[in-house]
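Fold it.
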Amino acid sequence: MSLAPAAPRLGRWLGTERALLVTMVAICAGTALRLIPSATGLLGGTIVIGAGIAVANVLLPGVIKRDFGSRIGLMTGLYSMSLSIGAALAAGLTVPFERAAHTDWRTTLAVWGLLTVLAVAVWTPQVRRRAHQAAAGTEAQPVHGLWRDPVAWTVTVFMGLQSLGYYATGAFLPTILTNAGMSQSLAGLMLSIANLLGIVGAFSTPVLATRGIRPAFLAVAAAVLTAGGLAGLAVAPVSGAYLWIVLLGLGQSAAFSLAMLFIVLRAPDGGSAAQLSSMAQSCGYLLAAAGPLALGAVHQVEGGWAVPLVLLLALLILQTVTGLGAARERYVAAGQRTPDAR
């Protein structure tokens, strides 16, 4: 996410639609680079792909805020769900496709790039439709004081904490289960189930938040579900594994989609949403990156998983507090109530 802070500026310079098109082309180019049979091609292509994804992830909440003001919950749910579906499909189908097609892993990974080619074809008409607005200078101006705004920091910390818990749990979930006596194949299946359930939580939570159920309640519910799953893993990881995975899958995906929804709701316009998205994702994922490292370090010291899981449970308290703060109906860099929040 090192390019995330530059994404809003790129959007103002090129126009949001053109900037998103550039990210798609970059992902196509990175996919092609990874076909080169060398470590340089693999590393360079991966960096280019990562840069494109980082910039696109920052700009898309701004598009939702700008173009779908009356359907923020639905569009945020679809956006969050698409991220979960993409990750689940890539993880679950890449190896089976490689074996079925009798090809090498480079070619198999390149096949996923065809989806980006399709995205370019679909998105190009949007660029043409919005070209006159960019030429007229109608892109939103930068928001001043965002990095000193308490609302922005509340959204950012919530984003970081839920991401930290998700990545830390996902990195070690199969190991936790296998150390408790579960077979490796079944432990891998548990992780897949959690990812599939994440599709449900990612889509439904923003929709519910804009259809009468308060985001504050959903933030608490997401933490409670996640806490139940973590506590179960600490006490009876194998005997209740299916229940703990259901709780984790629904709770963590609900928290992620809420984080994306808060970015949209707490911004007064599309440009502000892009800037808040840049701040929340760059700082939030930087915090999240420490999760697997810290959890692994504690496990090495303690020799078990009880203490690391208890630490994740403790972080859920702070996640809940920041979630309640982010759910308050205020705009960033302004003392206004948001008319589209619930």
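The chain is about 80% helix and 0% strand.
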